[in-house]
Amino acid sequence: MLVLALGDLHIPLRTHDLPSKFKKLLVPGKIQQIVCTGNVCDRETWEYLRGVAPDVRGVRGDYDENPALPPSLVLQHGPLRIGVLHGHQVVPLGDTEALSAVARKMDVDVLITGGTHRFEAFEYDSRFFVNPGSATGAFSPHWTPSPPTAPKPSTLDVSAAPSSPKPPAEGETPAAAPPPAAAAEPAPTTTTTVSSYPPNPIPSFALLDIQGTVVTLYVYQLIEGEVKVEKISFRKNA
User: In this structure, what are the phi and psi dihedrals at residue 69, rounded to the nearest 5 degrees?
Assistant: First the structure.
């Protein structure tokens, strides 16, 4: 199952629309579910997302005015429990231990949050934490251009992929990832998160290919006018 995770759009408060290069990739009929981490802010964008996927879920951010949006939600995908939260409720914002405490309280295997406008994906305490960043690269008063003093721990498999692929069909290897035979060597194992720290937020979203206990995440980032893609894998412990 393909799940698109995105949030912190702030349309039209801080920007006018999703980047056109992102919209070209979000082809209707390819993605089964969309999960919004909050701060979408306008009805037109919600309607656009419903045209991309038949199942759109979302939580309320600190700038959303729709009272019908829940503060959090839990989705069940086979053996995986996935929690969704905007992230402004996490103190300190984006803190690993605080996120871990929320994941334990929600009893989830994967926790998707926003709030920082910075993409992150890492494994901690046998759980997978995903922040898809801001899909529009909207301004955030919490943005810091310098990396944190200590990287978040991770044992995730991270590998780069060619730019500007279209989202794959369910069960297919996304075009972003080269076939195994084309890889010169196995993907390396990293001990840091996949993050960049420019002066302003990088527009980004995440596509999760969920197959049983395995989540293959593709992060799409718009860097210097080009879409760059990286792949990260997580497997739930038995």
Answer: -75, 130
**Greatest CA span in the chain, whole angstroms?**
51
**Sequence-distant (≥ 6) Cβ neighbours of residue 17 within 8 angstroms:** 11, 23, 136
Closest by CA position to 9, among listed 134, 113, 143: 134
Cα distances from 181 to residues 27, 160, 185, in angstroms, run 27, 15, 9
Tell me: the pLDDT tens digits for 174-230?
554 444 433 444 444 444 444 445 678 999 999 999 999 999 999 999 999 999 999
Q: In what side-by-side order are the strands of the sheet with 110-113?
A: 72-77, 80-85, 110-113, 127-131, 120-124
**DSSP character string of 172-219:** SPPTTS--GGG-SSPPPB-SS------SSPPPEEEEEEEETTEEEEEE
What pTM was computed for the model? 0.77
Per-residue burial over 121-158, b if 16 or more Cβ lie within 10 Å, else e, is bbbbeebbbbbbbbbbbbebeebeeeeeeeebebebbb
